[in-house]
Amino acid sequence: MKIGISSFCWECFSQTDQSKEAYDKLKNELNADLDFEVELNNDNIHEFVCPKGHRTFTQLQEQKFQILFDIASMALNDGYTKEAVSSYSSSLERFLEYYILVISLRNSVSLDDFTRTWKQMGNQSERQLGAYFILRLQESKPTNWDEKKASFRNNVVHKGYIPSSEEAIEYGQYVLTFIRSMLKELNDTSKEFLDKATFIHLSKNGDKFSDKIRISNGSIPTIISVRGIESEDYGKSTLREELLSIKENGFYKHFYRRKI
Length: 260
Ligand SMILES: [Zn+2]
What we know:
10% strand
């Protein structure tokens, strides 16, 4: 999957008189109204090199679970039901990690301690699920977990079961409802720590680069979003509606349109 990132060079801009005219002139020269296409990657760091060789890195503000959910939905739109279920499931797993992080931060766990412990469970989703169950128990809240959906997912991912589009939509709807309702709950009860988890997400790449390298934050409108989370209408749209809307999302540059 490719995404469009900004092709404006702030380094070039810093070498001008930094006036509005200079900004417009440079924007025109760089053709910056058009997105630069890069392949979406796991490190969440996307590089643009301007004609003068300045490197700009863009990271997405969206969390892994949000991106994976969109990838799953695009796979579903393209008819790859098995791949869609697999990515919806990955989205759910990464959301559980996010949830456990937020609750841990709220319980005064340091990021270092969290990271160290997570390393011992990072490769085993059953351990992660167990941690989630126990946290929910301690919060006196339901797990919202549907065991039938979990066995369906296992059949698809491990046994080669080819799901129908109806089954894939039903599974995707389950994941969508699960994550949205939990996000809303976290926003109501632990907003400060949601923000802290977002800050941690955006700080991950900082350590990998020297201070001279500019990292900009980009944002993509994803199906699962925290935008408008306070509103009554938050999360009311169905997956079927979202599947239609994501076709119009111009930030995703479909491979079919270009050669890989
Ligand atoms: Zn430049």
